[in-house]
Design goal:
By secondary structure, the chain is an alpha+beta fold. The protein folds into two domains: about 220 residues, PmbA/TldD superfamily (PmbA/TldD fold, 2-Layer Sandwich), CATH 3.30.2290; about 220 residues, no CATH class. It has nine helices and 19 strands. Strands 3-2-1-4-5-6 form a six-stranded antiparallel beta sheet. It has a five-stranded mixed barrel with strand order 7-14-15-16-19. The longest helix has 17 residues. It is globular, with a radius of gyration of 24 Å. One of its GO terms (cellular component) is cytosol.
Length: about 450
């Protein structure tokens, strides 16, 4: 495995070799991942897995023709063959008027932002096992828990290096840790399962295992004996762990590829009020210890915090260079990529800012509604915004969370849902995409 400095030198050398082989432009990306995962179940060790892998990819441009190739063999002979294969493929590829590297004048220059993404910790498998056992023990100690699907703990480290033929080169390292538990409550046909997890960049920031286990157990027990809910239009309140999915649908609708292909329900919404006034959705790639923080995007452009929604208004698209050229715009520093293929566009640490009301205040005037804790299926039409997903959760009755319900469908249209959305004040940074508790009035609920 390569160190940070070795990785940067390796991608720079590969780009130089591509230029020598006739590339008009080229870029290279190196990714190393090393992880340890420990799984336990019913108090016994079930699995210990260690994985180490590294891969390097090259994009080779001849005019507007390009090819992408990759290899997990980083020997000099393998990389020489990689360059030769890329050159041959690029010369036979069809022309793409929008292909190419990011504009040179927009590349990150000077000091690299500090994102505090690696803590240098290296917990032993025994320590991870202890954390997993603690999570499961705490869950199984809760009255009503009858079985366990297991608990786990993990530690990982990654090295990322990128170089381009117009002079950009940088590398950085990230660490990551996680703990999870999944348990079953009840007996026979009345059993219910639920889970809890937490992820962090720094080991010291990982939530105590016992808290994770108890949360999983409490959720499973609360779901026992689900009832039915009469169909109709009513307020729907989304728990934070599922409400963040609504922001995922927003992101999918404003990426450059969706706009360039004219396959987005927000195609004509730029500069328009799509949420209520006061609502702000921000992407912050420079948050210290953020789960997706990064100093530059997948093309070498600087990253910066951006209000995608400002006072309810859609401020712009998420663009990598190819879709930006197609739309006659500038890339926005949101390029994402893997080892193979061209970059796409996406977000890093995305969140909706908290509102003014507590979750209790947000629900206080709901006579009959639904509190959603789990969503099932992928019933979202990205072209029209039509939304229909299976759900389970709890009835809201006279402003209070009441009995559990299952086999529910919630439906609406994302444009209307966004306009009717109200956030609570309980935002926490726990995921790559975060939202507080969300209320949406007037959704269609299909129950009994």
């Amino acid at each position: 495995m390569l160190s940070v400095s070795q990785a940067e030198a390796r991608v720079s050398d590969l780009v130089a070799a591509a230029r020598k082989a006739g590339a008009d432009a080229a870029d290279a990306l190196y990714v190393m991942n090393a992880s340890t995962q420990v799984q336990v179940r019913l108090g016994a060790l079930e699995d210990v897995e260690r994985s180490d892998g590294e891969e390097i990819g090259l994009r080779f441009f001849v005019g507007r023709r390009s090819a992408s190739v990759s290899s997990s063999d980083l020997s000099p002979q393998a990389l020489a063959a990689l360059v030769e294969r890329a050159a041959a493929m690029a010369r036979e590829a069809p022309e793409d008027a929008y292909a190419g590297l990011a504009p040179e004048e927009l590349l990150l220059r000077g000091a690299i932002p500090e994102i505090d993404a690696d803590d240098g910790a290296d917990p032993a498998p025994a320590e991870l096992r202890a954390r997993a056992l603690e999570a499961e023990d705490a869950a199984r100690a809760v009255h009503g828990i009858t079985n366990s699907e297991g608990a786990g703990a993990s530690a990982s480290r990654s090295v990322i290096a990128l170089a381009t033929s117009h002079g950009f080169a940088n590398s950085y390292m990230t660490s990551g840790y996680g703990c999870s538990a999944s348990v079953i409550a009840g007996e026979g046909g009345g059993m219910q399962r639920d889970y809890a997890y937490h992820s962090a960049r720094h080991f010291a920031d990982l939530e105590p295992s016992a808290i994770i286990g108890r949360r999983a157990a409490d959720r499973a027990v609360a779901r026992l004996d689900p009832g039915k809910l009469a169909s109709g239009a009513m307020p729907v309140v989304f728990d934070p762990r599922v409400g963040s999915s609504l922001l995922g649908h927003l992101v999918s609708a404003i990426t450059g590829s969706a706009i360039a292909r004219r396959t987005s329900f927000l195609l004509d919404a730029l500069g328009e009020q799509i949420f209520a006034p006061g609502i702000r959705v921000r992407d912050d790639p420079l948050r210290p210890r953020g789960l997706r923080s990064k100093p530059h995007d997948g093309e070498g452009l600087p990253t910066r915090p951006l209000d995608i929604i400002d006072d309810g208004v859609l401020t712009g698209w998420l663009l990598e260079s190819a879709s930006a050229r197609q739309l006659g715009l500038q890339p926005t520093g949101h390029a994402t990529r893997g080892i193979g293929g061209p970059p796409g566009a996406g977000v890093t640490n995305l969140y909706m800012e908290a509102g003014a009301l507590s979750p209790e205040e947000l629900m206080a005037d709901i006579g009959l509604g639904l509190y959603v804790t789990e969503l099932i299926g992928q019933g979202v039409n990205g072209v029209t915004g039509d939304y229909s997903r299976g759900a389970s959760g709890f009835v809201i009755r006279d402003g209070q969370i009441a009995e559990s319900v299952a086999e529910i469908t919630v439906a609406g249209n994302l444009k209307e849902m966004f306009r009717a959305l109200t956030p609570a004040n309980d935002l926490e940074f726990r995921r790559a995409i975060d939202a507080p508790t969300l209320r949406i009035d007037g959704m269609t609920v299909a129950g009994a």
